[in-house]
Amino acid sequence: MADYRYQTQAPGQVGARAEIDQGLRSYMLGVYNYMALGIAVTAIIALAVAASPAAMATVYSLKWVFFIGIIAMGFLAPRMIFSGNTATAHAAYWGYVALWGLGIAPMVGAYLSIDSNIVVQAFLITAVTFGATSLLGYVTKRDLSGFGAFFMIASIGIIIAMLVNVFFIQSTMMSLITSIIVVLLFAGITAYETQQIKEMYYEGDAPGVAKGKSIFGAFMLYGSFITLFIHILNILGIMRSE
């Protein structure tokens, strides 16, 4: 049997591989940088609103407007990001970030007034959970693309369940159970999205598409991070009140 342990690659193959690896690292770093900046902007907006009773009252009265805006941007932003226009891509992403900042401000403000440690704990738990699952999605050799349809259907089901609880049932226990399911679901979604973002790097690009990839990747991961944070904060808040 032939022994391939000492087989070497041609210099051109080694160089091409190194170039791809370096390019992939730069690409993923760009994704995470955009995402981190988005989270920072969201935090600044939420804290600024929470510090002003008048702003809190205004934002709270418009909470459903922001909720609908976030859902709408979730569907519209990808098309805007891949429009081929960098300014449009940035406008879509930062608009989405701002909407989330305004949307979560009442919740964050309420918990800050009760116990600011809860918000800090929720953020740290979210960061660890997100980091671990995103790393898993990056390094795993298993193809996660088959989970895409399931994640989409499950996300729609969760949104419906949350709306039913808010408008009809208004159960704290159902809110807790729903948040636990959301955290587990979006831990999986984070791993799936990270792998999909990584795979996008290897795809051939039409003109103008490459510029939107880092922003789109950040858009995907940012949404998952914020969703994890909201529901981890909800879980900690419910557990504290019990």
Mean pLDDT: 89
Order of helices and strands: HHHHHHHH
Q: How many distinct helices?
A: 8
* Computed structural class: mainly alpha
Separation of the first and last Cα atoms: 67 Å
Q: Let me know the number of strands.
A: 0
Helix content: over 70%
Radius of gyration: 20 Å
Beta-strand content bin: under 5%
Cα shape: globular
Largest sheet, strands/sense/barrel: none
Instruction: Show unreliable segments.
Output: 1-8
Overall structural domain count: 1
Oligomer: single chain
Could you characterize the architecture of this molecule?
- The protein starts with 10 loop residues before the first helix and ends with a helix.
- It has helices spanning 11-50, 53-61, 63-81, 86-114, 116-139, 148-169, 172-202, 209-241.
- The chain is globular.
- With 242 residues, it is mostly helical.
